[in-house]
Amino acid sequence: MPAHVPAEAHGDERGALLAFLEAQRGGIRRSVLGLTDEQASRKPSASELSLAGLLKHVVEVERDWLETAQQVPHTVQRDMSNYHLSFQLEESQTVASLLAEWEETARATEEFIRSQPDLNGTFPLPEAPWFPPKAEQSMRWLLLHLIEEIARHAGHADIIRESLDGKTAFTLVDEERAAQG
């Protein structure tokens, strides 16, 4: 889970984008480091956001975009009636189970992107009021969009974690490194 993406680590554009995506995932993962499910589910501000909810949301978002790009049925169907559930642990979900699910999704995303001949290949966007009819986007756009989405929520996670116990992103990077030996 790199906190910094060294220039020599990626090799090419595809590798660079995948490395930056992984770096943003690391920000979310570190935000729940050492927390119980109960602690990660706390909402320390007027916002409805919790670390567990943000984690679940980014897992669903990445999987949803991967399934859109692969043009396969979506694992979870969300609409306005159940969108709020994408920010809450349900039934048997735990932080650990979501981290494991995200690891599989991240692996699938990388395999899919690396299987593409180039990043210019396109896929149809879902029908939504915010997309033009019959719009398509490239694999490059997909990676940039995932980086943007996860980075936005990693920033939220930094604030929530610091509100919970005072630990900053820098502290968590140090704790993660110490735990890895």
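The record above closes out task 2.4. Task 2.5 opens with a second protein, given below.
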Amino acid sequence: MLIASAFLKQLHQGQWRHPSILLVYGEEPLYIRRVTDALRQTFKAQGFLQRDRYDVDAQFDWQGLQMETQTGSLFADQRLIELAMPTGNPGTPGSQFVLNWCKQPPQDCVLVIYCERLESRQVKAKWAQAIESAGLVVQAKPLAQPELVRWCQQEARVQQLQLDTEAAALLAERVEGNMLAAEQELMKLSLRYPAGQVISAQDIAEQVVDQAHYQLFALSSLVLMGEAKQALHVLHRLQQEGTEAPIVLWLLTKELRTLVELAQASNLNLAMKEQRIWSAKQAEYRQALSRHPLKIWHRLLIDAYQIDRQIKGLQLGDPWLGLADLLVSIAR
């Protein structure tokens, strides 16, 4: 298993030999996006001119995909197959498909499976273990605070800026660990300051206003408490102020994953402690859990994935309308 940052370094060195199957999973959407983009560029450069992407749900036709990949053509291009499986639950047919692929991969095909957060039991499942043995597993995990500070400094250099340690620490604090938000703020700073500018903590304090982030936290509380009308008002304000849709989606997806974990827990108090939900916030989660059963939280997580596809241009639709619908579905 490789963490995403180390894997990206390998790809950029240009000497990476691809396996026949890869699993990319994790909680950090920025790394997922960068790994996805880098893999597509790498495979295209290596002659994989055909790319097919499938969304995996409970009704996914694994047998059809098995038959399709087994039927090759002498004159066919090398083919990249992407499976988006946000829940990390392939079911029995999907598990068998992966096991078969690992034992005897189709010629001129590479399979990449993308998941969101996987629990330890899912990582230890036979299909995931088979991928690790026969191919490669890449984990996109969030950065701890000291690592995030260093990352902010590195990203600033990419934007032709310099952040001193104090400024980087303040930026990391303002974005609350959200790497997508940090990337957005650094891009804004690069438009405001000339190349080579040294950004101080005072610059961060003046330019990186955390009002939007406070509004994000307010949005989280309103959604959990079922205040749909007020939550829609905050969502509209965030859109008007230029907040990126992926940041709002990150927040709602994070809450949905937490609700899934709590809904399937046998001991809610213990689960909240494990999820590090402080006492003042527990009432909000209890209120949300009283509105929907586990299967609804799972379905809403799939809806969040569809919005992600809209943001990336892989599916038709307005992501802000999708976010509004998702918000109302969680709250009502």
